[in-house]
Amino acid sequence: MNVLLAHTVFTGSLFHRMAEPARAVLEAGLGVEVALQHGLRTVMASDPADPDGPLVVREVDAQGADVVVLQLPKTREMLDCLRLLQAQGVAVVVELDDHLTAVPPGHRGHDLLVRRGVGRIAETCAREADLVTVSTPRLLQEYGRREHGTVVPNAIPRRVAELPPAYERQPDVVTIGWTGSVGTHPYDLQEMESGLQQALDRTAGRSRFCVLGQVGNARELLRLTDEPLEIPWIMDVDGYSAAIGERFDVGVAPLRIDTFNNCKSWLKVLEYSARGVFCVRSPSAEYERLGLGYRAKRPRDWATAISRAVEDPDWRHEQAAAAREQVLARHLTEHTAELWAAAWRRARDNRSRADRLGA
């Protein structure tokens, strides 16, 4: 079976949901040939019914693939590609890793995805696809019925999980870190309320707060005494993953419990755990399902867990090492390779069945 993965420009989604799955499937020798490219080769032309109108997709090249995977399709052109591919007998999988129509106000993508209706195009693509792959059970409820979709959870490449873990260091000053941008997490940091500052006060001189990404107005949101350190975002995902373990000792993963975040993957906690970083996190459904990290609901929970992690390095190391062992045992890309291959086979079978019924 030949599979063509048509990916987007979003680095994280490309890495975790396309490039690394392709690598894992090929290395597993599952009888699937996988090609990866940005977008699809198309022929655009005027619509004969509207010769003065905009160009439309008239042809799309499947490049010999039995299955084409469209990552985050959000344009009318991609919907046209999906339909043209199916007309050729090519199965189409739509891959989605966020609830695009539930992006909250204040998120930098809200205007485009919600107000301008781009997220609804993705929903249409998902409905018409031969199969939908998603990263969480809640996303499956949104985008695909059980027979029409499947969950393939996010996983970590072994080469990342086997980097020297953070807990092997013995820092004089413990770095409490968060990865992300306030622009795409407008309400999440506030879930800690005063808990982070309480911990920083209790461990003054022995701890500091750092953001890997864009710190924005994090100091104001958290009412911090000092401005957080900022490490500029690292676009290369391997470099980003390495930096987590090299720069953080404690990771925080606060999430506001809302429709958008209820669908989000466990990836942040998984990344921390893979790199040997002790994690304190919100009780979101996916973080609970993963079962890694220290659960924090109230400010005092955040303060207690972070403070103890700073003050008791042996406990911090023990917890972080146990979490990393669970990643190595259960949550590597080699563990999910067969799930990806099985999903693509299902899509091919669904398309064959649909063609027979339509014939």
TrEMBL record:
Domain of life, per lineage: Bacteria
Which InterPro entries does this one have? YkvP/CgeB_Glyco_trans-like
Any one GO MF annotation of this record: transferase activity
Q: Which UniProt keywords apply?
A: Transferase
Q: Where is the signal peptide?
A: none
Under the heading Gene3D superfamilies, the entry gives:
Glycogen Phosphorylase B
Does the entry feature the keyword Transferase, yes or no? Answer: yes
KW Transferase (keyword) present: yes
Q: Where is the Spore protein YkvP/CgeB glycosyl transferase-like domain?
A: 262-340
Question: What protein name does the entry list?
Answer: Glycosyl transferases group 1
Organism of provenance: Geodermatophilus amargosae
Tell me the organism's taxonomic lineage: Bacteria, Bacillati, Actinomycetota, Actinomycetes, Geodermatophilales
